[in-house]
Amino acid sequence: SAENDRLTKSSANDDIFFHATGCPGSHVILKREGKPDSPAASTLKEAASLAAYWSKARGAKSVPVSYTDIRYVQKPRGAPSGQVSIRNEKNLMVQPQELKRADQF
């Protein structure tokens, strides 16, 4: 939970935040690094699948994942570690899966 707070707080405003909807799990950040274009749909889906994999919903066939620009993620005053509120979110239904490393192809 504390790592989620540090990760979210250290992200740039144009990075994209992902979290499995309605269950505990890791925050996933897609770094945009100043790129003006929106990420490809396949990139968004990969990041969402990773967020689903590292959540309590890992065993489900399909998991709803919310995502939004990090600028719309706030930690409510007095909230426990790892808890945030988000606005302007979009949702994806994805299958939980870990990303393959380049040397695994």
Number of strands: 6
Shape: globular
The count of helical stretches stands at 2
Low-pLDDT ranges: none
Strand percentage: 15-25%
Distance between the termini: 32 Å
Q: In which range does the helix fraction lie? A: 10-25%
Radius of gyration: 13 Å
Draw up the topology in text.
Layout: H1 2-9, E1 16-20, E2 28-30, H2 41-53, E3 63-69, E4 73-74, E5 85-86, E6 90-94
Antiparallel strand pairs: 1-2, 1-3, 3-6, 4-5
What does this structure look like?
The strands form 2 sheets. Strands 2-1-3-6 form a 4-stranded antiparallel β-sheet. It has 2 helices and 6 strands. 20% of the residues lie in helices and 23% in strands. It is an alpha+beta fold and 105 residues long. The model has no long low-confidence stretch (mean pLDDT 90).
Short description:
This protein has about 100 residues and is α+β, with helices and mostly antiparallel strands. It is built from 2 helices and 6 strands; from the N terminus they run H-E-E-H-E-E-E-E.
